[in-house]
C-alpha cells in the first residue's frame, strides 16, 4: 500500500509547479485511489506509513534523510568533525562558510531532497485519509469506533510534516485535502511563515478532535513504549505547535515578533513526560542520537564545553600537536552527559585544527550499546518547560520563568545554584538558551541550529534554511537559487553574524 502512494506522490510532484498541466498518468498496475482506500484497514495502513515518512527524517546510515539534521547541527557549531562524508565538512563546517551547492552536479543533493520528498509524501497520504473520512464518509473500526482517532492522527501527521518543512526549507507548497492538483502552479510555492500557519491549523484540528473524543492510538502509528491516548496526543500536538512556532524565526527580529502569548498558551497544557519512540532499526531510527556513542564521529564543539566551563577555550588551539585537558564545571551534566576522549587521531588538521574536540556525548551510550534498538527521546518534556519559561520571559513574567528554571533539570540534574529573583530578562534568556544547548541534546531535528538561527548567533555566511532542492527546481523549470556564503550574508536567508558566538 505504501509503495502505491509513493508512486502517486511522485506523479503529483511532477505537475505541482507546471502551470495548469493536468495529472495525466495512467498505470494499469495501480488500483484506483478510492478502491485502494475503501477499507478501514487501508486507511490505517496508509496513515501508519505517513508517520514513518515524517520520522524518517531522523533515519541514518542506510538512508540520506538524517544527514541534513547532522549538517545543521554541524553548522550551528554544536557538533564538530573534519570528516567530509556526505559533504559534512566542505558544505557545513568549513570556515568561512560556503554557499550551499544546490545544483544537479552536487552528488549529495539527496541530503535535502529526500527530507523534502518524504515530508510531502506524509502530507499527501494524510490528505487521502482525511478526504476519505470527511468527504466520502468512510468509517474506521467497528461501527466507526476508530474514525475520530484516525482523523485526529491524520491531522497530527499533517501538522508535523508542514512544521518540519516550514522550519527546514525556505518555501513549500501547501496541499490540502480539497486542493485541486490540476490547478497548482509554481506560484503556489509559499514562504516558511505561510507553511507554518498550515502546520498550526492542522495541529489545532488534531487538538480539537482529540479533546472532544476518547481513544487510544493504534499501536502501529507511532512506536511508543505504551500507546498514546487522546489526552496525551493533544498534549503532544500542543508542544509541537509551540516548538514549531518558536523555531520558525530566522533572526532576532523575527524571534522578538513571535506570538509568545500563543506559545505560552500551548505550553500550559503541553507534554509532561518525554515523548519516546522505540527504535527498531527498520521503521524507527534516530541516527544522530544512536551514533553518539562512537568515540570519534560526532564530537561536541568546544562552544558547548565552554558554556559548561567558561575557562575552557571556545576553539581548539591551532598548533597541530596541541591537546587540552578535561574541563571542569559546577554543572554536574558535564560528566553526566559528555565524555572526554584523549584521541584526536581522526581529525584532519589541514581542514581546520580549530575544529577538533576531545568531547563526545555519552548521554545516549545505552542506546548506542544496544545498536540503536530501544527507547529514544524525540521530544523532551523539558523542552516544553523551557518554551514556557521563554514565553513567560518574553511576555514580562520573569518570576514565572525563573521558577521553572530553578525547579527544572538545571537544578535537579545539574545541581546549579538558583537564579536570583533580581535577574534581568537578558540573564533569564541566557540561562534558558544554556539549558537548551546542554539538556535538549539533538532530540528534535536541527534543534540547536534553529536556536542559534533565531538569536543571530550563527557564523556569518551560514545558511538560515535550505532552498527548494535543485532536482525539484529543474523538473519544474524554475531557475536555480541557493543561500549561504559570506557574500550572501543578508540576515534573512544567510546569517549576517551580527550576534555570532565567535564575536568577543
Give the helices and strands, then pairings:
Blueprint: H1 2-13, H2 33-36, H3 40-55, H4 67-75, E1 79-80, H5 88-92, H6 110-134, H7 147-168, E2 171-173, E3 189-191, H8 192-212, H9 230-247, H10 252-256, H11 260-268, E4 275-279, H12 287-290, E5 299-300, H13 302-308, H14 333-337, E6 338-340, E7 359-361, H15 365-369, E8 374-379, H16 381-394, H17 398-407, H18 409-412, H19 425-439, H20 447-453, H21 470-475
Antiparallel strand pairs: 1-5, 2-3, 4-8, 6-7
Overview in brief:
It is built from 21 helices and eight strands. With 504 residues, the protein is mainly alpha-helical. The protein starts with a helix and ends in a 29-residue tail after the last helix.
Order of helices and strands: HHHHEHHHEEHHHHEHEHHEEHEHHHHHH
**What can be said about the biggest beta sheet?**
2 strands, antiparallel
β-strand number: 8
List the total number of helices.
21
Mean pLDDT: 91
Query: Could you tell me the radius of gyration in angstroms?
Result: 23 Å
- The assigned structural class equals mainly alpha
Strand content: 5-15%
What does this structure look like?
The chain is mainly alpha-helical and 504 residues long. The protein has helices spanning 2-13, 33-36, 40-55, 67-75, 88-92, 110-134, 147-168, 192-212, 230-247, 252-256, 260-268, 287-290, 302-308, 333-337, 365-369, 381-394, 398-407, 409-412, 425-439, 447-453, 470-475; strands at residues 79-80, 171-173, 189-191, 275-279, 299-300, 338-340, 359-361, 374-379. The longest helix is centred in the N-terminal third of the chain and has 25 residues, at 110-134. The chain starts with a helix and ends in a 29-residue tail after the last helix.
